[in-house]
Amino acid sequence: MDGQLFLIQQLLILEEEIVPFDINFTIKETVLDFSHIWSAIRALFRGQKSMFTFSKDNAIFTILTEVKPRIKNSEIDYKKDMEFLLKQTKNNFINDVSNSVTNHIQTFLTQTSLQANQNREKKSTAESLISPGNHTDSVKSF
Q1: N or C: less crowded end of the chain, CB within 10 Å?
Q2: pTM of the model
Q3: At what angle do helices 132-141 and 78-130 cross, to 10 degrees?
Q4: Distance of alpha carbon 27 from alpha carbon 112, whole angstroms
Q5: Between these two residues, 114 and 39, which has the higher pLDDT value?
Q6: How far is CA 121 from the centre of its chain?
């Protein structure tokens, strides 16, 4: 809980320091994506395409000609990421505190209901011992 409070404090300080400058915190990132090449290589090793045929259906020919790395452009906004992290940390802190408070109440209620059930059972047992029908059966057996 202390770590969450410290993180919230630091993120709020960072946010206060950044807001007056109104700086664009987005970064454009260009990445080469090779993920689809692995599917072609898997097809080669699974035997879906033959490696030794002299045609366009040759697995090695397919890998060399058709499978090219893709270019992915993405924008990362660090200000939004920081705001999301701050919001998420605040929510986690609120949930942890409310769970710790309500956990004590829930434990108390559970213990109280168990004790009430035990008292009812004791009372019903005592009433059955005191009831006249119970004693008449006992007396008749002697």
Answers
A1: C
A2: 0.46
A3: 50
A4: 58
A5: 114
A6: 42
Tell me, letter by letter, the H, E, C secondary structure of 60-72. Answer: HHHHHHCCCCEEE
- Taking CA 128 as the corner, what is the angle to CA 123 and CA 129, rounded to the nearest 5 degrees? 100
| CA–CA distance, 67 with 43 (Å, rounded to integer) | 12
Comparing C-alpha atoms, which of 17, 9, 24, 3 is closest to residue 86?
9
Contact 49, 57 (CB under 8 A): yes
Q: Which residues of 48-72 are buried (b: 16+ CB within 10 A; e: fewer)?
A: ebeeeeeeeebbeeebeeeeeeeee
- C-alpha 45/C-alpha 51 separation (Å) is 9
Closest CA to 49 of 67, 35, 33: 67
